Amino acid sequence: MWPWGHLAVGYLCYTALVRLRGEGRQTSLALLAVGLGSQFPDLVDKPLAWSFAVLPSGRSLAHSLITASVIIGVAYWVGRRRGREEAAVAFGVGYVSHCLADLGPNVIFGLLRGDVEQLRWTTYLVWPLLPSPPYPNDSSFIEHLAAFEFSSYILVQFAFVGVAFLVWLLSRYFSPSGGHRRA
């Protein structure tokens, strides 16, 4: 998934959580945190794998739910000590949504249909216990960008961005508190 897709999915997941908890507002800090969390795994793994070759894949260390649990736990601990628990929760939602969204629709729908062959693409979620699967275009930023093409998957990501923007507008202008407040 591309950065804009991760941002949209993270925001939509966080907004759903806020609504499920019966809260009608989001702080500016929480929105910033969900944005950072939604990009964090790629900000760590891609440079370490592609530029410095210290990781085996652009989906390994920071994409692992093992690492995510430690980082999110530390973020929550820091957030709680500083009175910013909601920002830590938002960061965690963005982070986990990124890791799971990278499975992609083929893997997710394949698993839902009972196609156990798709499990081979999930191993990055428990790296280093299992090796990361081999991905095409997983060796450099240039190679990754050069492989970009407008596919239905890319269009769906743009649709997520549109939905996220619409949800943001609606929550900002049609909620009792104005949608979000300063942290």
TrEMBL record:
<feature type="transmembrane region" description="Helical">
    <location>
        <begin position="150"/>
        <end position="171"/>
    </location>
</feature>
<keyword id="KW-0378">Hydrolase</keyword>
<protein>
    <submittedName>
        <fullName>LexA-binding, inner membrane-associated putative hydrolase</fullName>
    </submittedName>
</protein>
<feature type="transmembrane region" description="Helical">
    <location>
        <begin position="90"/>
        <end position="112"/>
    </location>
</feature>
<dbReference type="InterPro" id="IPR007404">
    <property type="entry name" value="YdjM-like"/>
</dbReference>
<feature type="transmembrane region" description="Helical">
    <location>
        <begin position="60"/>
        <end position="78"/>
    </location>
</feature>
<keyword id="KW-0812">Transmembrane</keyword>
<dbReference type="GO" id="GO:0016787">
    <property type="term" value="F:hydrolase activity"/>
</dbReference>
<keyword id="KW-1133">Transmembrane helix</keyword>
<dbReference type="Pfam" id="PF04307">
    <property type="entry name" value="YdjM"/>
</dbReference>
<keyword id="KW-0472">Membrane</keyword>
